[in-house]
Amino acid sequence: MDEQTRIEAEAAAFRGLVKHLQQRTDVANIDLMNLAGFCRNCLAKWYMAEANERGADLDYDQAREVIYGMPYADWKARYQAQATEEQVRRFEATKEWHADTSGGN
Predict the structure, then answer these.
(1) Do residues 34 and 91 lie in contact, with contact meaning Cβ atoms separated by under 8 Å?
(2) In sequence order, which ranges of 1-105 are alpha helices (DSSP H)?
(3) Which of 33, 51, 59, 85 has the lowest tally of Cβ within 10 angstroms?
(4) CA dist 84 to 3, 14, 15, 90, 97, Å?
(5) 3 state SS of 56
(6) Cβ neighbourhood burial of 91 (10 Å; 0-12, 13-18, 19+)
(7) From CA 50, how far away is CA 74, in angstroms rounded?
(8) Rounded to two decimals, what is the model's pTM?
(9) SS3 59
(10) Could you tell me the pLDDT band of residue 19, with boundaries at 50, 70 and 90?
């Protein structure tokens, strides 16, 4: 596969993932973290870091709006439920496997 095709395929896969996460409002971020070690917020942080690395002026709220498909406050008010004690316990137990969102990949 040539470089341009690879870049286009990766971008399309990213858009597909974002679309899927926007449609799956029933899946809580804490569940994503507990199962996969990353969530919508992680994806937004990666997106922001990569955009900024390429000279774009994108802040975290703007990046989250891209990932959530709406302002985060709106998504949170519509879809985010209080985490259960079990979800929080699992989150703490899996912390060592959570994604690095400190910037860049």
Answers:
(1) yes
(2) 3-23, 29-36, 40-53, 60-68, 72-79, 85-93
(3) 85
(4) 45, 30, 30, 10, 20
(5) coil
(6) middle
(7) 25
(8) 0.91
(9) coil
(10) very high
